[in-house]
Here is the input.
Amino acid sequence: MQRRDGSIFDAVTQRRGSDSAKWTRYAGGGDVIPAWVADMDFASPPAVLEALHARVDHGVFGYAAPPPELVAIMLERFERSYGWSIDPSWIVTQPGVVPGLYLACQCAGEPGDDVITPVPAYHHFLSAPGHAGRNLVTSPGRRDGVRWDLDLDRLADTVTDRTRALLLCNPYNPVGRVLARDELETLAALCIERDLMICSDEIHCDLLLDRDKPHVPIASLGPEVAARSITLFSPSKSFNLPGIGGFSIAIIPDPGLRRRYSERSHGVSVHPGALAYHAALVACRDCGDWLEALVAYLAANRDWLEEQVDALPGVSMCHVEGTYLAWLDFGRSGLSRPFDTLLANGLALTDGADLGDPSHLRLNFGCPRATLEEIVARLRKSLP
Ligand SMILES: Cc1ncc(COP(=O)(O)O)c(C=O)c1O
Here is the structure.
């Protein structure tokens, strides 16, 4: 695979000893490289950094109002990218996507009802229903070679009369699929037939590594789907901004559902801060070229990683269509506790047990190639 010499993404920034959650968690264990939580080891776009400096220089940090053009710019991006026309009144502004998952579950039927999600799943999908007093119902997907598929028949069979909502992640953390239009149409038809709300977490929607696989917001499929949907989005994954303080939007076309959601967030889900607003505005308005270069870098990292994993004994990975997360199968590696063995070899991945499948680990390749090379070296060293 071609190495892009001189890419800004090749620069290694020392995060050890910084306030990074990713680099701090396992720091007590000596020389550990973390490739677990979904943030990238890249600096944010230069234009964002400049805007943040200017905002800090202003010096006054009273309560912040959203920049008037921010939502308009985001909605214009959605219209351009997906042909999805969104009324600004549908938007609820929030400090993060995760609060949206928990609020959505509180809007799903009544306590004691069921919320269904495909597994494996981002860990908050597994805890949000229970936190809202709903029952978590999971529906395992299946692997066909290097492709991970939702098992749509099984999912439909799992829906009961108590099921009120589907939690969906697209692009799909942790398996890296960008769900295709026909899969989404099947899911949407099921949700309409069984009267399910859809909460679709689309935070990874800019990170599309295969040019022929576009992102389709499920709510954009038609008004009947939109009317039962909550779509969650934030620019924080695309531009590596989660540590700035969250900014996200929930897109909720139905006024009744929006009211229920907003009522539950009142006084609990606080407003984003000034730095988060500024970073989001500049990122969405001015950093399209940076994002394109990032996606190309991630795609090259993905290609290289797939080649390397292919040569490892007993480990395999699904092809990553979107996100910077690889879902690695250790089922035939001979390791009984792969997470622990890798950690003992100086590598911290996300334990699949936390995501619904203990035979897998999730590897974050959103890092400079040099770091990824060290990650793979430690992975190789960990195997029997
Ligand atoms: C699917 C998904 N949703 C939400 C989040 C976090 O969102 P936020 O930081 O906006 O709460 C992540 C971060 O890993 C994620 O992968």
